[in-house]
Amino acid sequence: MENTVLDREEQQAQEIKHVGFGEQMAFNFSAMFRDMSYALLNQFHTFWVNVLGYEDTRQMAWLQLTKQVWDGITDPAVGAYFDRQSYVNEKARRYFRLTALPLTILLVMIFMPIRFTANANLNTWIHMGFILLCYLPFDPLHSLNGTAFMSYYNSITPNIQERSGVIARSRLFSTLGSALVGGIPMISGWFTSGIDDAQGHRRVFLIATIVVGVAFLAYNFIMYSKVKERTISPSQGQRQSVFAIFRTLLNNRMFLVLVASNTIRGIINRGATDQWLFAYNIGDISWSGYVGLIGGLPAILAVTWIWPKLCERFEKRNIVLSCAAARLIIRGLYLFIGMQPGMLNLTALNTSIHAKVFMSSMAFIHEIPNNIQGQMYWSLIADSVDYGEWKTGKRNDGMIYTMEGLMNKIIGSVGALSTGYILRFIGFVPQAAYQSAHTMRGLFTVPLTIELISIACSNIPFFFWNLTRKQHAQMIDDIKARATPAEEPAETS
Fold first, then answer.
1. Greatest CA separation found in the chain?
2. 20 to 30 A from 493, CA-CA: which of 67, 84, 149, 200?
3. d(CA 360, CA 330)
4. Using an 8 Å Cβ cutoff, are 212 and 35 in contact?
5. Crossing angle of helices 297-313 and 316-339, rounded to 10°
């Protein structure tokens, strides 16, 4: 009888909703405005080549190398700084006020098409130095700001079921923010005046930079004034050593499962080969965007509602593994059908509408389980924060989120090399009007085969994810019980 009463009380506690519609929308738009800055940074190569007209690959190589090294140094340092600071009722909120204006100024300066001297070669090197000078303070401040935002996945509500819905909706808006900035060149008529119109490109990027800068300021204002931190375990003024923080990560089995999965997926990587498939097998590279829109956007909208509901009834590990199995079946059928002779054959030139409808349909079907896994990943990261705090008594969410980001950057840079190796393996000839029959077949079959291997191998670690819904709810109760009444977290305005 006593256990029944406790279970009922626990269920009632989890049914309490803390995040109202207004606060949820504030968090959603904050996520969208925030990710616009990341999307703009991902457009840097386009800015460097198409806007500034710099074609010397040495500068781009040095910029990328410096960026990767600096990221590797600053990300764990930022995570450790975030976790070592003393706090009581708020941990992240203050960083939105402190970093908003400096980051906006630096972001705009990085994307300013400045000409320092009439000497073209000297100008590129000076401009490279200027950008690096801006980026050195920008990167750690941007990581600190982003870590503060990501920590809200854990702190915005103590209701773990409500948290899934909050994360799902915010990830949808994050995707929209990235898509908006990624599509600014197309939306703004980038190509209407010709691909060599440098002045037009500069104008588009200037507008994009200003829009993103304003959006970034708005994001920080909204987070600081409209979104609450509710579940913060007070630090009690005790500063952890950096070594102790890293040790908590090694003791966090749930986080290690996610790192292992990401590492495998990043190394076994199909690369960015789709553009060549659409350019040669379909004969229209623009269809890569159409397929992404037709297949991806409806799936994301559906998944945002679906996976939080699934988490209320099924264990997350079972959902992840079921999605992996569904992806293997869908992509396997896609590979098999696309190889067959006839109207849907994708191993040779096929510009028919049947092939395009087939690709779009298969993309939509595949993106449902794929997006469930992708969006649930952030819920699993939040769960690993709870697990680490429960096991070690320390809430090292800053280190977990920064290390997760760092690992993705490192692994992503290694995995990106696969594109070149795949193209070389299938005999691809750059800038050729036509490719051989062997290459055309390889453009479809080889990346898909690699993707199937990646899906299968990268989901093996989830067999070791053994955190159940009941155990998670008990963990949250244990964490709350550790605080004395005087230390219990209070809602902030």
1. 84
2. 84
3. 13
4. no
5. 140
> What amino acid is encoded at 138 in this protein?
F
Identify the residue whose tokens are 């969410």: 397
Position 476 pLDDT exceeds 70: yes
**The token pair that represents 205 in the structure block:** 């990027």
**Cβ atoms within 10 A of the Cβ of 379, count?**
22
Q: For residue 410, which of 246, 263, 252 has the smallest C-alpha distance? A: 263
Distance, in Å, from the CA atom of 202 to the CA atom of 49, rounded to the nearest integer, reads: 11
Mean pLDDT for the stretch of residues 43-51: 76
Inter-residue contact 321 to 459 (CB < 8 Å): yes
Tokens of 144: 């600190």
Strand residue runs (E) in 191-232: none
Between CA 377 and CA 107, with CA 136 as vertex, the angle to 5 degrees is: 70
Q: pTM of the full predicted structure?
A: 0.84
Task: List C-alpha distances in Å: 38 to 31, 33, 315.
Answer: 11, 10, 32
Q: What is the 3-state secondary structure (H, E, C) of 290-304?
A: HHHHHHHHHHHHHHH
Percent above pLDDT 90 for the chain: 48
